[in-house]
């Protein structure tokens, strides 16, 4: 079921957001998306939708798209991150460090043959396999794959002040404060209010070739593990809400289809976001 709602044209001055809502609904027909960006937040789940602490995300939902029946596939964090990029939890059931999980499996990263980038906020060194400070290795899935070691050192880097989004796929992991794991919803919302407008101002988004997805790894407050997924792209109708049943495998399948690569593992049978969100 698809429900289309209206959207406000501006954020309130107190929202810490940019003065304009995200630029959705500005492309009549779906363009050819050649760049996909994910931002993965932590743990809060669907209760963030409509929260008074999340004025920016509430504005995104009014201006762009929101999947209202999306679900994580496991607990705790790490299996969900692996499911997102590999189409499977790969048998992992914990949050242990990369030193405890030497994974050599196909993933979205290997599918794209080096045409990817990962930004991990507060990561001390590139492709860092050790959790420290506010950096959590378990939120940075590329560092778990031993078959990515050569490219990981170049492509999995600390999040810079200015993002480069020219890769086919860009994975963004905020630190454990800005992803809402260890700090408030308001903290994460304010971080998004700074980062998302920068993504929308990129040459790729302005050329109508970039689609952005904001999701959460899991829900600590929902028995069904329901998470919100926000869909921001020029062709997404403003205020679009889609109640189709989705999982993390749906996001992988959507990204693979948009970028023209074969679906992996459980993504093969997953429903994509493409039809519902006019991608």
Characterize this entry briefly.
The chain has 279 residues and is an alpha/beta fold. The chain contains eight helices and ten strands.
Question: What labels would you give this structure?
Answer:
disordered N terminus; 8 helices; alpha/beta; 279 residues; 18% strand; ten-stranded mixed sheet; Alkaline Phosphatase, subunit A
Characterize the structure shown:
Strands 1, 2, 3, 4, 5, 6, 7, 8, 9 and 10 form a ten-stranded mixed β-sheet that branches. This protein has 279 residues and is α/β, with parallel strands linked by helices. It contains eight helices and ten strands. Strand 4, helix 4 and strand 5 form a beta-alpha-beta unit. It is globular and about 45 Å long.
List the helices and strands and how they pair.
Blueprint: E1 2-4, E2 35-41, H1 55-63, E3 65-71, H2 77-86, H3 108-111, E4 116-120, H4 149-155, E5 156-158, E6 169-173, H5 185-200, H6 203-206, E7 210-216, E8 226-232, E9 240-242, E10 246-247, H7 248-259, H8 274-277
Parallel strand pairs: 2-6, 2-7, 3-9, 3-10, 4-5, 4-6
Antiparallel strand pairs: 1-9, 3-8, 7-8
């Amino acid at each position: 079921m698809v429900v289309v709602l209206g959207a406000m044209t501006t954020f309130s001055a107190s929202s810490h957001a940019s003065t304009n809502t995200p630029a959705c609904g500005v492309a009549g027909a779906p363009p050819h998306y050649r760049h996909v960006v994910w931002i993965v937040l932590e743990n809060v789940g669907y209760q963030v939708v409509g929260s008074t602490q999340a004025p920016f995300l509430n504005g995104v939902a009014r201006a762009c798209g929101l999947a209202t029946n999306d679900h994580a596939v496991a607990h705790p964090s790490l299996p969900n991150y692996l499911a997102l990029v590999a189409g499977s939890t790969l048998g992992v059931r914990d949050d242990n460090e990369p030193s405890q999980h030497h994974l050599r499996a196909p993933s979205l990263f290997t599918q794209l043959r080096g045409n990817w980038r990962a930004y991990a906020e507060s990561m001390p060194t590139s492709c860092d396999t050790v959790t420290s400070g506010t950096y959590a290795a378990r939120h940075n899935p590329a560092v778990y794959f031993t078959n990515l070691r050569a490219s990981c050192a170049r492509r999995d880097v600390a999040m810079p002040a200015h993002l480069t989004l020219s890769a086919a796929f860009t994975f963004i992991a905020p630190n454990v404060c800005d992803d809402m794991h260890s700090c408030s919803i308001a903290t994460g919302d304010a971080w998004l209010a700074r980062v998302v407008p920068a993504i929308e101002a990129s040459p790729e988004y302005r050329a109508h070739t970039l689609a952005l997805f904001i999701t959460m790894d899991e829900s600590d407050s929902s028995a069904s593990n329901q998470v919100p997924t926000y869909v921001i792209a020029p062709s997404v109708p403003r205020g679009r809400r889609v109640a189709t049943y989705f999982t993390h495998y749906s996001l992988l399948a959507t990204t693979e289809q948009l970028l023209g690569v074969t679906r992996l593992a459980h993504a093969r049978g997953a429903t994509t976001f493409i039809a519902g969100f006019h991608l």
